[in-house]
Amino acid sequence: YSLSSSNIKSIIIFIKNKIEIKNYIKILIIFSLFLFQLYQQGRLCQLGSEFCELEVFAKVLRALDKRHLLHHCFQALMDHGVKVASVLAYSFSRRCSYIAESDAAVKEKAIQVGFVLGGFLSDAGWYSDAEKVFLSCLQLCTLHDEMLHWFRAVECCVRLLHVRNGNCKYHLGEETFKLAQTYMDKLSKHGQQANKAALYGELCALLFAKSHYDEAYKWCIEAMKEITAGLPVKVVVDVLRQASKACVVKREFKKAEQLIKHAVYLARDHFGSKHPKYSDTLLDYGFYLLNVDNICQSVAIYQAALDIRQSVFGGKNIHVATAHEDLAYSSYVHQYSSGKFDNALFHAERAIGIITHILPEDHLLLASSKRVKALILEEIAIDCHNKETEQRLLQEAHDLHLSSLQLAKKAFGEFNVQTAKHYGNLGRLYQSMRKFKEAEEMHIKAIQIKEQLLGQEDYEVALSVGHLASLYNYDMNQYENAEKLYLRSIAIGKKLFGEGYSGLEYDYRGLIKLYNSIGNYEKVFEYHNVLSNWNRLRDRQYSVTDALEDVNTSPQSTEEVVQSFLISQNVEGPSC
What we know:
mainly alpha, protein transport, microtubule
């Protein structure tokens, strides 16, 4: 349809007079015939003035099947400089302060509006504004010490914990979880129970982000025990996702595979293949594939997730940035042996550009994006034939790694897996910069922290051990130490991933060089054969297939997946 200026003016008057619209069809008409047309015509200032009115936007939010278009319009306004997220959050907070003395029914209606508004802002990645909305809801919940408001307070805490996790406010997230437990206890004393699946799932996400993997795994089991019939599909999908990630870092790969594949199936079946929730599951599926060494497939899955997020959100959106970062790293790993890093660098720079545009320069989300770009720049520098360009790239990589390290130490402290990873990355960089003693110091630091936190035979330990072996072998002539470290790295890699693990190539090549250096040609011949067998195994084991082929239809029900997981933990769960 094409609307004349007089028709548009009439619709504006219609909305601003706050005529009650109870018919859902009318809401769709307002959105699709008026607001979306303003977006299509590029009349963003006028669209922004309408969206910034809480009454109008609250009505538009009820048009659920137009949510993807709403995200597009909203992001366009944010990119245009219209601070619509902040305006709506402020307007809602003011409304809540005005109705503080009103009766419970008025507050309940406001809380419902707040949950929808805050949920939209959270889904769109505007976590700070969503947090403000949920805090206002929580204040309304605490004004009445009644059972209904305790249930609402728990629900509000779950939503608040989610946005604080997304915004890396982990300390506040821990406080939110404790507050939710307080309300849970109140309900329990009165013989009432609130389902804890979503709350425990969010706690698992928080602990995972802080690299407290044992605790994350423990709470993912508790979340899985809470999955029951009638639970919203979104909650089930999110719990399965978090549980899968917790299993991955505990190297419980078979469990992780079952959980994430079912999450992908559920999300696609319930929400559709173009929904942001489906992209969430794809990112976690890509994480699983990358960690089980299916690198090529992980790249394809990450690209699919990015395509969905760009289609839904577009523009400078945090969800798009995280997808760019994940794709950058998987592309970097995939192209490591070829030395072709253009695609990886593009996505890393896109991620950093978006994050720096919408978040403070010291935000923790920048740490991982800067780390990925630094890794890529280092490899480009190594292959560069211009000495001046090489030094410039290495220095840029050094600055990025140092910045990432400082952000990680500020957020997590010295004794943390994320901090250890940054030490290890600096160790590799110092080796490239020919600062060998500094490189050794960084690698040893990384190994010590990882061993204490993850154990002697973890994948992360093997990575750092292999890097130290490379330093001793190629640059410090400490062949005996290097040999021991290579053999240790190989043993861990085989144990976790099997004979065809991709990381074994670099250890085998390192041993071939080492034995050549010390004149042990029998061993050189032996490891040439080992490497040839490894190549043949890789060709058979990792032929490229469609990673989504076996998740389009799930052979198991959600109840079967949950029960299978809990039985493997020797735990009984409630019936779904």
